[in-house]
Amino acid sequence: MSIAERLVPRGPDGTPMTSGSWHIPSMLTSSNGLLRLGRDLGALAADQPVVVLTPDLAFSNGLWAFREQHPDRFLQMGISEQNMVSVAAGLATTGVRPYVAAFSSFLALLCCEQIRTDLAYTELPVRLIGHHAGITFGFYGTSHHATEDIAIMRSIANMTVVAPADPVQMGLALRAYADHPLPVYFRMGRGREPQVYAEDAAFEPGKAIVHSTGSDLTLISGGTTLHATLAAAELLRAAGTDVGVVDLHTVKPIDRDAILAAAGGSRLVMTVEEHNVLGGLGGAVAEVLTEEGVGVPLHRHGIRDEYSLIGPPTHLYQHYRLDAPGIALEAQEWIARRSAR
Amino acid sequence: MELDQAVLDRVRERAHFIRTETVRLISIAKTGHYSSTFSCAEILAALYYDTLRLVPGEPRHPDRDRFLMGKGHAAVGVYPVLADLGYLDREVLDGYTRLGNPLGDHPDMTKVPGIDFSSGSLGHNLSVGLGMALGARQTGRNFLTWVLLGDGEQHEGQIWEAAGVAGHYGVSGLVAVVDRNGYSLDGKVDDVVTVEPLADRWRAFGWDVHEIDGHDVAAVVSTFRRLRDDTGRTRPAVVIAHTVKGKGVGFMERDFGWHLGWLAPEDEAAVYAELEETR
To answer: CA B132 from chain center: how many Å?
Structure first.
């Protein structure tokens, strides 16, 4: 059965259901960014000995589309995430190029030690794709949320940490890092992120993308919060604040020059991330500013060292001020608090 | 199978070499895993001097058989072999564990030619070996991947994740050897947390199981050769090698505390003498 056929929910007699009913394969039509991931990896497999591994999540992360194209290069590992990461390490020593995809919560947290010891310490070119990062899992709860993965991954030597803003940028990043000799952790959302980048957008490894500059405030973000940050900047501009936005898609190695340029041209800097403010993007930016002796005030906006409430993702983004109005309000309140001093 | 007496004598002699070199190297580090290495000396000697299809001078040759040390704490027994095979300089071996030397208590593949994978965290290497065996399938190569596991290591959950996946896919290119010496750090493995029925566990996961006396050189060599040469196998295989922790040194065989230790020079001399007697 083709992908298109499998995406249609069918009743007991095999006829397509015409109601609003849905099932797991059809979920991919509404989160087609992840279906795209499978296709991007499939395309990459034309040039590289790509092998894809997933722990019983092919219908969740779209790697089913890869399996369709390259059944012999798809390795179903069952629900054995730690085993899967170590298997990928062994595979990498034989000259193939393993791509591992799983929920960020299980990949970066459950498999942290396998990643450190078997991939990073051993300098192996395995690609880790953590999807459904942050709180995108909404009411699935904390077991399925990952607001610690950036902090964990960037403290692992030899690891590169990239958080693409949308599935298009994910595809660009996959290509850009295709020949990188060391492991890379890609942090993705659930594939429903609004598109920020065009298909022909530039992506340079380790090089931040400056969307705009502003003398009052620079918003530094990346990954799942970039779209909302760009929209928040529009709201702030409409309210008279001169705002710039930097896409710091690569948290490690960090683009020091871009951070220093932003800090040099702005009175204030605010980071925005769907991650604990401790150790993530905000922490990484703070380290650079402090080490360089830049005295610009920094506000780290994100999950403030707590576990997320239960709720639909869009409601959670509203609650944690990670949607556009919330990010704009957070910035305005911070600016007001500062001027009230 | 006809086994040449010269082969068996050679393996026996190299097992003795592994034990004496282990004592010598640990005297440099002043702490080490004597007894964990003594229990697998015949296994290591059989693998390196008979079973493994290695390519002299090419420790990274893509068609070589792989050998992984799940029980990485016995690496002190492998380093002298790698030096003997010409992969390591003698001066490097003699600097074991000294500042900046590539040879530590646990093996590092990025620093030591001939080490096929780093280890030290128990439970990982069976999965890594599974990945190598799957890699052989992907790349159309016929090498075998051998993974030496400890019996205490059987506690690790990841072992059984790998065992399940290898059994499911019938990965015949993967061979595990369990050094069933009966002891882990805190005492008898089966008192700490039992791993029995061990053979049945592996069978239940879809593996061919072989049980041997891990110090009977003829049994070790012939079993390993059979697994290597039987190209018709369709399942992964495990050899449960019943061994004695500390084998060759009486007081170590009787006391699990020798999992980690150091011999003062006067005791070291007695140990060399005992190993010489029992070789």
So the answer is: 17
- Contact check, Cβ <8 Å, B117/A90: yes
Task: Please tell me whether the peptide bond between B197 and the residue prior to it is cis, using omega within 30 degrees of 0.
Answer: yes
Convert B8-72 into a string of H (helix), E (strand) and C (coil): HHHHHHHHHHHHHHHHHHHHHHCCECHHHHHCCHHHHHHHHHHHCCCCCCCCCCCCCCEEEECCH
Compute the nearest-CA separation of B265 from chain A (Å): 36
Q: Label residue A198 by pLDDT band (50, 70, 90).
A: very high
Span B5-278 CATH architecture = 3-Layer(aba) Sandwich (3.40)
What's the whole-model pTM score?
0.96
Domain segments of chain B as ranges: 5-278
Q: Could you identify the residue written with the tokens 């070589």?
A: B64
- Torsion, Cα of B13, B14, B19, B21 (10° steps): 120
Over the stretch B81-90, which tens digit does the pLDDT of each residue have?
999 999 999 9
CA angle A131, A136, A141 (to 5 degrees): 105
In whole angstroms, what is the distance from residue A260 CA to residue A266 CA? 10
CA angle A147, A152, A158 (to 5 degrees): 140
ipTM (interface predicted TM): 0.95
Residue type, A110: L
Is 60 exceeded by the pLDDT of residue A187? yes
Query: Tokens in use for A242?
Result: 């001169």
Inter-chain residue contact B62 with A94, CB threshold 8 Å? yes
Sign of CA dihedral A301, A304, A307, A312: negative
Contacts of A51 in chain B (CB under 8 A): 138
| C-beta atoms of A121 and B127 within 8 A | no
- Write out pLDDT tens, residues A112-163: 999 999 999 999 999 999 999 999 999 999 999 999 999 999 999 999 999 9
* Separation between Cα atoms, residue B114 and residue B66, nearest integer Å: 9
